[in-house]
Amino acid sequence: MEEEAGVRRWIVDITRWRPSPDQFDAAAALLPSHERPAVARFVKEDDRKRALVSRLLQYSLVHHVLRIPLHQINICRTPEGKPYLKNCSAFPNFNFNTSHQGDYVGIASEPICLVGLDIVSISKPQGETTTEFISNFSSYLTDHEWNCIVRAGTSCEVLTEFYRYWCLKEAFVKAMGAGVGFGLHRLEFHHEHWTDISIHIDGEVTKKWGFWLFKLDEMHLASIAKGHPEGAVSSYKKALSTVSVTEEQLNSALESPEEAFTLWTVEQLTESME
Question: Model pTM greater than 0.90?
Answer without folding.
Answer: yes
